[in-house]
Every structure is written in C-alpha cells, then in structure tokens.
Design goal:
Chain lengths: 210, 273
C-alpha cells in the first residue's frame, strides 16, 4: 500500500486531501479510508509530537516513546475501519497509545528491567512507589534546569500508572477532564480524584522544587 | 486553631499545592518526534500489520499439551499392542500344535462344532506336524482346538477349557467317520485357517503388525528357510492369496509360493516341499 502515492491532488477529486484546507480529523480519516494516503500523513503530522511527548513523560524513555508513537499510528492505520466517529479522534489515538504504554511497562516488569525503585513497587501497582530523596547538590547553576527536568521526569515515571496517566494527560498534555475520563474509560469523578491524588504524591516528592 | 502547617488538609492549601505541581509539570520542556518519524511510520505500514504479541497462555498450553500428547501416543501404542497381541491371535493355535508331547495326552473333545468357512472365531487345527500319519484307532480324539481371541495364553488345550469355549448347544455330528477325523498327512492348509497358521506351517513365524504379516523368524531346516525366506520379510500373499489382515485365508492353500516385501520390493519365493 503506497503511503504517499498522491502528493499532488487534482481539483476534480473530491475525496482527496487538500493541503491548503484545515480538515477535521474525521474528514482526514474518511479520506484515508477512501484511499487517500496523504490524508493519513497529515494525521501523523498533527499528532506525532504530542504523542511522543506524552509517551516520553509516561515512560521516561525517549527511544521507547518514539517507537510506541509510531506503533500507535500503525495500529490506527490498520484499524481505521473499526474506528467510530462517536469519539474524538484524539481520544481514540491517546487511548491506543496509553494501552501500548501500559503493555510496555508490564513487559518491562516481567523482564525485570525496572530500575532499583521498581523493587519497592507493589505488584498491583496500587500503592505509592517509594522514591528515594534526591539529595544531590547541583554542581552548576547552568545545569539546574536540566537537573530539575530530570528529577521531575523520574518522579512522574515513578507514579503508579493509574495516577500517572491522568496527571500527564492533564498537566502536561492539557487534555480536558472529560477527554481524560474517556481515554481511561473512567467516570469523571474518579478521574478528577486520581489527578488530585497523583498531584499530591508528586508534591511530596518534589517539595524541594516548589 | 490557627496553627496550620503547610501539610495541613486545608482545601485552599491543597488546591494551592496542586496548582504548584500543575505549573511545575507544565513548565517541563516538550520533546518532539524525530525528523524521520513520518518516514518510519510509512515503512512500518509498508511492512504490513503489526504483529500481535504472542499470547502468554500459549506456552503454558503447549507445555501442558505435549505431555498429554505423549501419554496418548504411548497409551495408544500399548492399547493397539494389547488388541493385536500375537498371543491372542493365530499364534495361539500354533503353540498348541508345536508342543510335541501334547497330542498323546489330550482328552477327547466331546462337543466339537463343525468347522467351516463361517466359523471364523473357532479354528480347528489339525495336529499334523507331529502326527503325520495316525492310525484310525481313536477317531474322535485326534483334534486339538484353539479359540482365537477368546482364550489368551492357554498353551495347552484342556477339555475344560475347550468345553468352556464352545457353545454346548452347538450341534454335535452324529457320526464321525474315520476319514473325517483323521488328519491328512499333507501341508495343505484348510479353508478358514488363520493366516498365521498358514505361515507357521511352512516355517515362517510371523506377527501381524502395521506393515502386515512380518516374519519374526524362520525356523531352520524348514521349507521356507530353504527357499530363502528371511526374518524381516513382510509376507504379502501365499499361493496368490493376499494376507492383508488378521483374518483367515479364503481358499485352501498349500504354501507353495509366497510373495514377500523385502527392502521395498516385492519378491516371489517358491517353496519346495
């Protein structure tokens, strides 16, 4: 299947993606279903950065985040026929990415590739993970920002999944509570509660930076 | 009352702390996808559908299935071996015949059913090998009887066993002339005789297996041994009569010619008497 078989589009072809237009996600999906591979390329371009950033903050591993983001688009492409427009496409694609990330985390656990902090995490992932205090003295003021980002990233990655997903989606990706609830297939109240609880856990760990 | 610490659960404080965390997370630098992201997505799509992760239950199922299959195979083997055991087949009759001292001590069989082609389950075997010519003095006592597949491991036929094996209500021949009762001093195999019996008479000790009647050994100084029949030959036919199963030969056979399967080839061997 040629992905970019149609770079230039004829005006008379009503089903093709028009680069100058700002089509909705659903319109792009419909165009892709009708054979316009360029429309799918536009979808990839729209979501690749946000998905990569979301997965990076979720996994704290850039290479893995890029790999899973690509896998997300591949799965979306081959499952377009099963996609229903009752959900926002962003909700749909974030749900797939989240499921892939959760699977990856569980695969890591099975392979015993977690860091030392993983040893203090319960199997059901329902308890708060132990995070050793970072007492290192910052050697250079120029590295403060990088150091801070690294520590925050590790603190996020150490959160239990059920708190990490909504916190990242809300505070880093800026998704609405309703959308997060749909992505996680939870009620709105439960979603808000988990976000609040996740923030509280992070506050305990990152008191030094507040 | 007013000594609230920063860790207090005051809603305003909690909201303030959450807002701080929210701002802290929002201030994190964003990472972007690499420049070749679209190209790599295209390449993956061109490769085809993503491979589903193998079910983690599959190895467990495979681990359970292998021993079960092994047990089934072994059980099946022993089951088939038990069903087609040579001890219960035609060799039973052979054992009776091959005992040299037994014909003299056998007792008369009172209720001897008629022997014919329809009596497949009961084979009357004439003790010819050890008694080539017998005077017609006791015409009703010269037969020994073996029952195929009904009385396993009965090397010597006894009157009690014989009587128990036969239906007492079977018709008894009114008269038994000396000609009928006396065994014929020839190698002729009668109609209805089991295939193993036919082979045994010419010196081939064969067992019926997957490949057919396979010669386990050839008795030395017998016609078959002299003609060149070897252990391992699969006997396909005797006197043009195919031996394809455990059944009896359809027609009388003298065992003058056997066809054997040897090294994948069919070989005809003429048996000299």
């Amino acid at each position: 299947m040629a992905f970019d078989k149609r770079q230039s589009v004829g005006v008379e072809d009503s089903q093709t993606y028009m680069p100058d237009e700002k089509l909705s996600d659903h319109a792009l999906i419909e165009a892709t279903r009708n054979g316009d591979e360029t429309a799918f390329e536009e979808i990839v371009s729209r979501y690749r950065n946000s998905l990569t950033n979301y997965l990076y903050r979720f996994l704290n591993d850039y290479e893995e985040a890029v790999d899973l983001a690509q896998e997300t688009f591949v799965r979306v492409y081959f499952a377009l026929d099963r996609y229903h427009t009752q959900y926002a496409f962003s909700t749909y694609i974030y749900r797939i990415a989240t499921n892939l990330a959760i699977s990856e985390i569980r695969r890591r656990k099975r392979r015993r590739l977690l860091s030392l902090t993983g040893l203090f995490q319960a199997e059901d992932d329902s308890s708060v993970e132990f995070q050793p205090p970072d007492d290192r003295i910052l050697p250079d003021a120029e590295l403060v920002q990088d150091e801070r980002s690294e520590v925050i990233g590790r603190a996020i990655a150490a959160l239990p999944e059920k708190y990490r997903i909504p916190v990242v989606l809300r505070d880093i990706e800026g998704r609405s509570y309703d959308e997060i609830a749909e992505i996680m297939e939870l009620g709105l109240g439960t979603t808000k509660s988990r976000i609040s609880r996740g923030r509280g856990l992070l506050k305990e760990k990152l008191q030094h930076y507040l | 009352m007013g000594n609230q610490t920063p860790q207090s659960k005051d809603p305003m404080t909690v909201e303030h702390g959450e807002a701080q965390i929210s701002r802290l997370l929002a201030s994190l630098p964003r990472v972007d996808a690499p420049g070749d992201f679209n190209f790599r997505v295209k390449a993956r799509i061109a490769e085809g559908r993503p491979s589903e992760a193998p079910s983690r239950w599959f190895p467990l199922a495979a681990r359970a299935a292998l021993p079960v299959a092994a047990i089934a195979l072994i059980g099946g083997y022993f089951g088939i071996t038990a069903i087609y055991s040579p001890d219960e087949g035609p060799a039973q009759a052979v054992v009776v015949d091959s005992a040299p001292a037994q014909p003299e001590i056998r007792q008369p069989v009172q209720s001897l059913p008629p022997v014919g082609p329809q009596q497949d389950e009961v084979a009357a075997v004439v003790s010819e090998a050890e008694t080539p010519v017998r005077p017609v003095q006791e015409p009703q006592t010269v037969r020994s009887v073996a029952v195929r597949n009904t009385v396993p491991k009965a090397p010597v036929s006894t009157p009690a066993a014989d009587e128990a094996s036969f239906d007492v209500s079977a018709p008894i021949p009114k008269t038994l002339s000396p000609d009928e009762a006396t065994p014929k001093p020839s190698a002729t195999v009668r109609q209805g005789d089991p295939a193993g019996e036919v082979l045994k008479r010419i010196g081939i000790n064969a067992l019926f297996g997957e490949s057919g009647w396979k010669a386990e050994s050839v008795s030395p100084d017998t016609a078959a041994a002299k003609a060149g029949v070897r252990a391992g030959d699969v006997i396909q036919s005797v006197d043009e009569q195919p031996l394809s199963d455990l059944g009896s030969v359809a027609k009388p056979a003298k065992g003058k010619k056997v066809t054997v399967l040897r090294d994948g080839r069919s070989v005809e061997i003429v048996i000299e008497p």
